[in-house]
Each structure stands twice: as C-alpha cells, then as structure tokens.
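Handout, section B. The chain below has 613 residues.
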Amino acid sequence: MIGSLLIANRGEIACRIIRTARQMGIRTVAVYSDADASALHVREADEAVHIGPSPARESYLVGEKILAAAGAIGAEAIHPGYGFLSENAGFAEAVLAAGLVWVGPMPHAIRAMGLKDAAKKLMAEAGVPITPGYMGEDQNPAFLAEQAGEIGYPVLIKAVAGGGGKGMRLVESPADFVDALASCQREAIESFGNAHVLIEKYIPRPRHIEVQVFGDSHGNIVHLFERDCSLQRRHQKVIEEAPAPGMDADTRAALCAAAVRAAKAVDYVGAGTVEFIADASEGLRADRIWFMEMNTRLQVEHPVTEEITGVDLVEWQLRVASGEKLPKAQGELSIDGWAMEARLYAEDPARGFLPSIGALDVLRFGEGEGRRVDTGVYQGGEVSPFYDPMIAKLIARGDDRDQARKRLGRILAGTAVWPVKTNASFLVKALEHPAFVAGDVDTGLIGRDGETMGAPPTPSPEALTRAAIALVPQADQAGFRLNAARVRSALFLLDGNPVDVMLEGEGCDKPAASALVTDQGQAWLLTPWRKDGSTGGVASSGVILSPMPGRVIAVAVAAGDRVMKGQKLLTLEAMKMEHSLAAPFDGVVAELNAAPGAQVQVEAVLARIEKDI
C-alpha cells in the first residue's frame, strides 16, 4: 500500500482525497499557490509545499513544480484529483518516469480518450453507439460551416480536448455559426491549448447520463451504475443524482454493458466515467442512447455513486494504484436508495450568475438527515478570483428519489453565506420545479425556465421580523399604547431600499448595527435607516463597469460608434468563463477604456454610452 501521497490539486477534491487517505493511514502532502497559503486543503494535509504564484498556469498546471515538490518531500505517489493535470497524459508519463505511483489511468488510456474525435472513432470500433457528426481534420471555418449544414441544425461545436462544458457552443442557425466557432476556439485555446473542434448533431431535449466504471491492473473492469446529470446551465452540471429517474433494468443493463466495453477498449485502470446523451422523448431506451465522451479521472459528482453503492471510490483508486485487485466483483455491487448532489457556487443568479469573490465572513451549511458536505473553504476564508468558484458540494441520501430531493432542499434552504453571493436559492427553486419533481428533466430545462429560478428572491415576513428584532432596542417607546402591547415600526435598508416592519412587544437589549437575514438559501444584510437618509437608488448612467476582476478578450466597438440596446460591447474572461457586456440603451460610445488582453479590476470603468438625444 502507498505510504505517502501528494495531491496535485486544491479545494474540495484535495480535502476529499486527504480524508480517505488519512483513514487508510497514508501520509498526505498538499501543494499550494500564493493565493492558497491559508486554504483548507493546506491546513488538513500532513505537510504542504509551496509551488508558485496564484495563477494556475504558474503553479497547479506546471508539472515540473509538482514533481519537484514530490521529490523534495519524499512522496511515493501523486493523485491529480480532477481538472488541472488530471487528464494530461504527458504529466502521467512524467510521474511514472520519476519512479512514482500515478493514481489514475495509464497514459495510453488518457491519450486515447482525451480527444473527442479520436475517442468516438475508437468507440464505434468497439461497438459503442455514437452520435452522428463531423470528426475530421479539416478545420477550415467555411468547411466546418458546410459540414454543420449537412448534419442539420441545431448542432454542437465541441473542442476535441474540452470538458466540463468548456469549449462548447450550441448553434441553432447558419448565421450564428462563424461567431460561435470563433468563441469556442478562443475558449478552447485558453483552457486546453488546442483549438481543434468537432461538430455533432444536437439532440433536442436530451438527457445526460453517465456510467461510473472502474478497472484494475489484473484485467478486471466493473461498472457502479449510472448517474443522471441532465440539469445543466450553459453545459455546466447543476444537480446530479443516482440512479437515473425512469431507468428500467433492461436499459440499465445495456447502457452499463456499453460503458464496460468502452473501458475495455483501452484496457482501462482506475476510476473513469463514460458519458452518454439520451433522446428521452419517448422515455429512456437503449437504442436512443449514444456515447459522448469518457472522462479519465474521478468526477465532481462521484459522491452520489458512493452514497448508493456504499463504495469509497478514492479508496478504490488508492488500492488499485497500489497494485491490488478491485475490492468487489460486479455481482457484489448493487443500488441502495437514492442520492442527489448540488453544486454550491459563489455566483449571483440575480446578475446573470456572475462570479462573486471575497471573504466568507459567514459560512453555514444547512442541517438534515442523509447530509454530506464536501468543501474546500471555511468560515473566515475566502473565494479566490483565480480558480473555480465552487464553495461546496451538498449531497443528500434518501430511501427514494423524493426523500433525497426534499432532504437536499432543506440543506440548501438552511445554508447561509455572506457577503459572497451564492446560487443556493436558485438550487432550491430548481429542486422544486414541477419537471424536476416529476423526474422529467432534460439539459435545456434551465435554459427554458431559468428566469423564474434565478429571479431575485425576497425574504419572508418571518425572516424579516427575526432580523428586525435584532435592530430595535427594547427601550424604544415609539408606538406605545396604554394597556396594550407596544407596537413599533422598524425601518431598515434591504438591497438599498427602505423596508418597514411592524414589531409588537419585541426587541433586544443591545441592538446590532446590522443584522443578517437568511431565508431559502439566500442572505441579506439589513441596516437601520432614517427617513431623512438615502435609499441608494440610482438610474442607469450608461457607465459600463467591470463586474469582477478579469481579462478583456475581445472589444466589438470603437469610441464614437453608434450602438443599439443589447449590442455586445466587449467580452471579459474571468473565473474560467466568458462574460459579454452590452449597451444598456441606444446611443454612442463616448468613452472606451478597454483593449484586448488588458487585466481589469472590479468596477473599473470600461466604457460609457451616451443616450441619443
């Protein structure tokens, strides 16, 4: 068995690996950048090694620094987690060449599945069904546009080296193809260093279903059943569950058998996920499910599989990497209950899901039965602008789907984060959407109904009363009535607007300067307000501010240009995503302070639009 393990990653997955390694008696080593000097994974590991500046490309993505850290500390093995170098075949080879144990699949398997076009060709040869599309070498934009027309719109453009929704664009008409291709390739270069794309037929109202597979170095390969990851926003998974709703025994058997064939085609060793797209317009059927890609690593959503099978997948990874056989045979694995996972992100649904960074002054996760929390942050820590803004994965297990769903909803509703904004209230609404409740979910659900889920919530009267009590002194005699309970009016600001709450016979001895009210996963800060104070309401001035720290990657206008309301002005890249900023009204670009490649800070003035007179 491995004696010491370096985790070449950060955040919640590093903490997750440390937890299991410690239970197995394995010494753990963390690596960290400047931004992560006080991070949770650094605190929890037995030892930690600094590997460079905050940007990932100067630290977590530099294989030489990871290997140097392993050598300096005397680690025997390296676990890459997910993301960063986890699916980098060259890094895996370098680890093995250094005489270290690589906790992951062999480089040849990573390479075979790393490019979507080559992987699909391999899967077709192995008898795994694939979606129709173009996977050739010709990357001329005009030729690709021609191929898209032959396939038939709508189509998906996918970076062949992509993953996690990065480097993917849905194109619904020929007029949009060229711009979508350029954006996709730009993101692919930034994220993966490879602009090569493939085009495939887009399946209307598809289901995203994946199968967890596991192999060892003795030729054994098993599956651990399926997960449904259909609830997505912009191709990013939002809520995952296992098993998949509506999956019958025959379809499950066919799907899982196809996943095992896919793994066997590359002599797979370790944890992997085979992802499929399903046309569920007439229910889940084996003849309407096609291979999409294989992720040669542990997935973000692996906890739901662990919860329904009772298997610790990280423990299996460490045992298999140590040369052991799989702990269980296929016949010993079964499904018990239901599990759901929600990804809690530092983002603001009310502002188009823009990332929210900064200090975590308040961080409390809701309680409840069947609860599991995987996190890489802590109260008093911070959400960094340099990495993925995930705060935690909240998981709930139940005897059946409805129980798991309700339990997860209660955990999310009881979650409080401040001042960083989160998507908790959005997730609560998603869990309560009639289609999700019925298990009738496809990848476009949020795109169709997301406005209602992301609408800014308002605190309930009960929640407002709780907060107001903390702001009003007991001794206040305003509204006093003889032989009756005191009735007082508490005035405070909520999101910059005055709110009046009537209190009856309540208050506190030492009123707070402000009070945090939480309700259904949302948090608001209330501060006392006087009638002669300002409401803070301001009309739009036409000033375009940067919503976060980031990098300008494209500017679509010049000073003096006339623009129309909604017209794209520039594109900002931050937190691994592109964000377009548009004109708030018809007018003229009176000021432009942005150039491609420029780094900008939050609330920097990027442009100013003057209204037409």
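Note. The longest helix spans residues 177-192. Compare this with the example in section A.
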